[in-house]
Amino acid sequence: MQQNIYDLLEDCQTRIYNALRKNTRTDKEEAYTYAVTHVNAMDAELDMKWDELKRLGYIVHKGSLAKMDDVSLDVNLHFCIDIINKRMRINFSSPISPNAVQIVFFSTVPLEQSTVLYEEKGTGGTERRLKVSDLLAVLSYAKKFAEANLDADFDRYNGELMAIKTVDLAINHKPVDKPLNKSLHLVNDVLTEFAKVLSKDKETKRTASGISLLVDLAIDFLVRG
Question: I need a surface site. Which of 3, 84, 131, 180 has the fewest CB within 10 A?
Fold first, then answer.
């Protein structure tokens, strides 16, 4: 995908998330109008999603923006997010979860250290959880890994360190002005490489002292949560 198209999709996504967070009709209408105006064939894909709802037996009120009720507008905005993420997934091998984007960058309240970001059932029915404090620890390890292993690749090194810092700031509820999916993709890339090293190097595993499970959970949070 050409970079300018990616940036456009990301810009639309940011506008929509911000509008949903502000929760005002004006902001939502502006975000919706921007998306259908700037994203190629967005109108057609929205119509397909509404038609699918109709086939499933739901009462559909899509109409024009002026006649659209608040619920239908919210549905349209979430449809837009789905469409944008589908287009991003087509062009990236590891899709980033919209839920992860929303939690990391658009939480309406400060995230406590004990806040659970992701959980899954382990073997024997046990629950495995990734808390905010765990993700911050994983980011710290990822930073050290990037510094130790990517110093010869300056562009990539700088990009991934910037992405790690961006996510760190967002998780700590501090303002950031950086690309969203792009940052999470870069963090996911370095964590995936880190996980591969952990799985092969027993000494690194011992040194990491349990970080391997957290890395796996962090990756799952980014792509599945």
Answer: 3
Does the pLDDT at position 139 exceed 60? yes
pTM metric for this prediction: 0.71
DSSP for 176-212, written as a single string: --S-HHHHHHHHHHHHHHHHHHHHH-HHHHHHHTSHH
Q: How far is CA 184 from CA 131, 132, 223, in A?
A: 17, 15, 9
CA separation for the pair 225, 221 (Å, rounded): 4
Largest Cα–Cα distance in the chain?
64
3-state secondary structure of 56: coil
Residue located via tokens 């406590």: 112
The chain-wide mean pLDDT, for the chain, equals 82
What dihedral angle (degrees, nearest 10) is formed by the CA atoms of 179, 196, 88, 224? -100
